[in-house]
Amino acid sequence: MGSTSKTSNKIDRISELPDSLLVNILSLLPIKSAARTSVLSKRWRPLCLYLEKLQFSDRRYSGIKFTNFVDRLLLHKPPGLKMDQFGLSCGEDHCLNRVTEWIRNVVRRDLKELELSFRSKELYKLIKDVYNCNSVEAIRLFGDILVDPPEDVGFSRLRVLEFNKVTFLSYESVGELLQKCPVLEDLSIDECVWLDGYSLSICGSALKKLSLSSSLAVDIEFSLEILIDTPALETLYISSAADDIFIKENLQFLKTAYIDVEQIIIEGSVPTSVFGLLKKINHVQFLHLGAETVEVLNAAYDHDQTTVHRGLPPFYNLTEMCIDINIYCGQTLLMDFLQNSPNLRSLQFPHGLVDTSFDESWRFSWVWSSVPECLSKHLEKVKIYEFNGTKEELSFVEYLLKYGSALGEVSIDMVSDLWGGPVLAVREELLTFHRESITCKLNISF
């Protein structure tokens, strides 16, 4: 009897909370879980319609069930209700018949963030309503979407714009679109498809972060020019093939750069585009040189070492550098970078120092004529991955330890099957090298 009385006196305090607080609680749940609360009582039934952040994916639904689910939560929203975020990921072709109506519904609600990801047999052409959404601050597009912006674009508040594997009508249309984004700060154009054009213009006085990548190899029959006019840029990521990449102004505020530029190397000429690019980013603090760029630079050194040596800019702000080795990293190339980076504190080789899949004749011997200022004064940390124990690698490590007065740590990850001999024997040889810095730790792992 007492137990029955206690049960009957229970109070549903959660349901007594104000609607605004309950909606905030529901917004923390996955959309499917939030929708299930509508069966609790009449009190809970309409709350999901007031959610301002909606993320839909058809990966856990099938066919018409997914379409009806989105319709119920989106198209029945009260008129005038604003939305902060809308995300839609779908691959069923029948869903695309409803996509346009869904998008039109959300962009009319002062939408702040839009994310679309489509997997379909045909491209979905982004509707004009999106380009005229003046309230949107972030747009992220993925997959089978055709981007063909109209002349009247209204992106006055857009700060983040991301394109991933989408299709553009032309290279030139991108530049026209960016001119209508006055406050854009973050731009990504990665692995996209282009139907026409030959000139890509990336502009933006407010742009701070730029990512531009493509898996396409250079084509001698196709000429692509890339112009970058972004004076406030702080982060730059380029992994692309282009005949010419031109940065209009020296990037005074650049902090981080990843450069992996592929160019056609014509025998008897120096590929000047990469060197021109390096001169415009020489204020950078962290620099990562990709394997394609290293190959281009090596080819230039092989052709005309003196001209290239004089043309490499100083990097006075550079404190951290990573170098990806493709075939090899010529001693002159690395020496020039070290000589021109007097304040370098960290040096890393993520893919080792040599590529052992190539013949030994491709490699080099370390013969240093001088000691770079960074090595004798500032270089504190060196990390070498995929160490094979070749004489070239051992020579380089010996040189670092001998002249690295400021070294605090040199870490070496050896591969399991060394070219240079048994693992333990190579390790013992490394440990015998003289260390100029008495505080330097030599960490060897295998």
From TrEMBL:
Entry-linked Gene3D superfamilies: 1.20.1280.50, Ribonuclease Inhibitor (3.80.10.10)
Residue ranges constituting the F-box domain according to the UniProt record: 11-64
Species, as recorded: Daucus carota subsp. sativus (Carrot)
Domain of life: Eukaryota
Pfam families attached to this UniProt entry: F-box, FBD, LRR_At5g56370
Protein name stated in the entry: F-box domain-containing protein
Coiled coil, from the record: none
